[in-house]
User: What shape does this take?
Amino acid sequence: MLTELQHQITVAALSGADCDDIEQSIIDPAQLDEEQKSALWLYAHAVTERPSKTILSGWEPGSYS
Assistant: This one.
């Protein structure tokens, strides 16, 4: 069940959904306990967040600073 929900979250994120949309349409309706919903929310947050251009400005492949 969680794997299928993760797949749905990934598809939604790739389609442009944000974390709030995913929470309302996929996570909240799922028949899961709060711990499982929290884990899915963290997954949704991870797949919808994009690295900030500010953080990556000046970064070059091979540099670690």
